[in-house]
Amino acid sequence: MTSAHLRTRQCSFQQKAAPAAFWGVLLVAIWMAGCGEGERPAQTPKQTPAHTQTVLAARTIVAMGDSLTEGLGVEEALAYPARLEARLRSEGYDVRVINAGVSGETSSGARSRVEWVLTLQPDVVILETGANDGFRGIDPAVIEDNVDAIVAQLQAGGATVVLAGMQIVRNLGRPYTGAFASLYPRVASARGAILIPFFLEGVATIPALNQADGIHPNAEGYRVVAETVYSHTVEALRRRP
Questions:
Q1: Looking at residue 3, what DSSP letter applies?
Q2: Could you give the residue numbers annotated as active site?
Q3: 14 — phi, psi (to 5°)?
Q4: What pLDDT, in 10s, does the model give residues 51-71?
Q5: Has this prediction a pTM greater than 0.85?
Q6: Of 10, 62, 108, 234, which has the fewest Cβ atoms less than 10 A away?
């Protein structure tokens, strides 16, 4: 696969569209836009500024997730993977960040394409998944099993994993939302993955940082997300041999 085609939007099935979004405490969701749109142009890695010293050899980072990763509703250059790459390169990290987000994907769908992600030979994988499962009220034990299996398989393939913690609207009930939120730190602890406590920290429930659907970040919201992910990604890069 050439670098011009590393950015992909393949998916094996389409999810049904979600109902209109509502604001709740810690709205998460990605829910749902079809994954059958045409492929976007591949992202061109930005050049490291001449004054910046490269502190790491070339690394490949794969941002694996759903529409929150894909950047539904914004230009590709404004989604968090592109912003993260720009920030890392400005700090001297010789990296490329591949956007492997698929709108509407559940944790089961993510689990089914881990082998494909590993063909990209990632040094680091930022895994963001499970919000669509929570939206459907899928048993948190099922979600946890999928997330745990994905992390284990990525690590077995040689990748350092950054796991994005998610939270779900409280109208599903305290027992469910509590079980959902706790699965991410539990998997991260068990597998030695780097945990982002909440992927949408500082963005969820803030109208000015989200699109009209109240679900997906807008360009400014993705700037905040990229900053949230940045320090955890640096930690992952420093763990590499």
A1: G
A2: 67, 213, 216
A3: -105, 145
A4: 334 455 599 999 999 999 999
A5: no
A6: 10
